[in-house]
Amino acid sequence: MFGLEKKDTTLLILVAILTMAAPFILNPFPEGSGLAQFNAGYPDLMQRFVIFGIFAIGFNILFGLTGYLSFGHAAFLGVGSYSAVWMFKLLSMNIIPAIILSVIISGLFALVIGYVSLRRTGIYFSILTLAFAQMSFALAYSVLTPITNGETGLQLTLDDPRILGASATADGSIPVTNLFGLEMRSAFDLAVGPWTFTFSAGYYVCAVIMLLAFYLSIRIFRSPFGLMLRAIKSNQTRMNYTGLNPKPYTLAAFVISGMYAGLAGGLMASMDPLAGAERMQWTASGEVVLMTILGGAGTLIGPVLGAGAIKYMENIFSKINDNVLHGWFSFMPDGIENFMVAIVHPFVGKGWHLTLGIIFMLVVTFLPGGLVEGGQRVGKALRRNKDEDSKNASTEPAE
Amino acid sequence: MGILDVKDVGKRFGGLQALSDVNLSVKENTCHAIIGPNGAGKSTLLNCLVGKLIPDTGSVMFDGNSVLGRSPHEINQMGISRVFQTPEIFADLTVMENMMIPLFAKRDGAYRLHGIESVSSERELVSMAEQMLEDVNMLDKRHMHSASMSRGDKRRLEMAMCLVQNPKLLLLDEPTAGMARADTNNTIDLLKEIKEKRDITIAIIEHDMHVVFSLADRITVLAQGTPLVEDAPENIKGHPKVQEAYLGEAH
């Protein structure tokens, strides 16, 4: 189906079901219960899951397939955001032109940066991309203030022209982003018993775009182009002596992944129409590297899993403060309670990075293939058990 | 005039004159062996033919065109395929994927941003790859991860990857180095079969005299960067200069 093999179709359908049902799946705990803080089914976070999923899927096309590790992909995310916000300021609040422009502009950016950076390989390539990204960050932060509004960040104002829309709504406020009239922040709540599920238009727009992006990445993985990219990672000498020029392929992969990043940036601005220089900082570039490796570089679904895992930790773990911890351990005697809180404290709240770091180290050490490899191992173990069970079952009658 | 003409080629690395006044002509549809003691400049010469090195002097003409200054991928597109001393294959990919890459290179040129049709939908190329694998007795291994294969299999795969492109000239750099006797004999049989079945010119660098004398129609002996003699195999064996070069170096 859709020009995919059976296995890939199954994966795509599975991902489609999961993303469409995410408001339910991510909200398993009833409101008001002690575990409700682990619910991730609110629109803002779900949007972040899929947007960073797109970012990581694109990054994986470069890093996972060709092995070229870019440390500057956040630059394209930032460029995408700025382009989208400018589109909202100048043209209209419809997200479609904004997203199209952000993909085009970040693609052009990637073409220039990639053309220069790809003259080198390995660590030198990584450093070049990092340097470009930091330059972009510095430019956005200071020199290019007329375009980026410096450290305040680019925001919508009431006197923006918006040629195809209104500068302000009838009641004098800034109009909101929409898709042909469907407001991105509109949402609809469904209450079932103690649960409340929120279905946000913004989330579903992002989710559909992520599914399209995911589908495209599967097609790229399975295409001759994807095969060439894997060949580049495997053996460039053989590639050259087989009559192939690796450069155009790597550059194309770089531009495609830059456009994915721009798409993510554009979507980010479409959900919340502002753009700041900090989106381009090297920590943001590092984050997408972590996401891809944590999930499983070079696998189809890995980057999405990694993005989800990191964004979940960032938003959920960081909310657990000492009060919450005291609540958890309150059944213990006072002294032990305080002791337990003191032990757990560094790993949650502001210290969530510590948990992330430990998990990352464990995954890289024991599961070099990331969460996907973990899943495969579990699957294999289960299958082996089943095989043994059926063997036992079939031998029983003979005994 | 042969299909490959090397004229007055010289190459210097710092103080070492690796090649000087090399003249060599490989006739079409023959197997030409280049032998010589260690350090005679065999590999340097080969690297000058495939674009890895550019000679300081002289010219290298292939099929009427100069190869000098062209990059390895361009030279491959002219019709020269090279087998390395240690097999260079795409170790992360399966055998079948390894076979598909040279086929795409042959059909589509040095680079083409294909559509997003899947690799497996290229029926024609897939069947060509399978045919080639069958010819080298590797069809049963087509789904194997090529990194996990034995060295002999990797060599056969590399050879198959070169042959599937139907090159005019196949360059072999010590194709049996480090192989067991049985594998060496298999390789000889494979190369003999290729020679009979196809219109192909083979240039081979080899240490193993058994291989050289089983395959070569013509032999050039290289010593200290210059060709010593060029003759038919039967005349080379007893040639006094050759024995001198080998014995003088070895003992």
UniProtKB/TrEMBL annotation, chain A:
UniProt GO cellular component terms: plasma membrane
Pfam families referenced in this protein's UniProt entry, alphabetically: BPD_transp_2
Alphabetical UniProt keywords: Cell membrane, Membrane, Transmembrane, Transmembrane helix
KW Transmembrane helix (keyword) present: yes
Entry's localization field: Cell membrane
GO MF annotation, one: branched-chain amino acid transmembrane transporter activity
Annotated protein name in UniProt: Leucine/isoleucine/valine transporter permease subunit
InterPro entries xrefs: ABC_transp_permease (IPR001851), LivM-like (IPR043428)
Main location (coarse class): membrane
Protein species of origin: Tropicibacter naphthalenivorans
Transmembrane annotation, as ranges: 45-63, 94-116, 123-144, 201-221, 248-268, 288-313, 325-348, 354-374
TrEMBL record, chain B:
Keyword Transcription regulation: no
Domain of life according to the entry: Bacteria
PANTHER family reported in the protein's UniProt record: CONSERVED COMPONENT OF ABC TRANSPORTER FOR NATURAL AMINO ACIDS-RELATED, HIGH-AFFINITY BRANCHED-CHAIN AMINO ACID TRANSPORT ATP-BINDING PROTEIN
Keywords noted in UniProt: ATP-binding, Hydrolase, Nucleotide-binding, Transport
Residue ranges of domain ABC transporter in the record: 4-249
Protein name in UniProt: Lipopolysaccharide export system ATP-binding protein LptB
Gene source species: Tropicibacter naphthalenivorans
EC number: 3.6.3.-
Keyword match Hydrolase: yes
Gene Ontology, cellular component aspect: plasma membrane
Molecular-function GO terms, alphabetical: ATP binding; ATP hydrolysis activity
Classification via CDD domains: ABC_Mj1267_LivG_branched
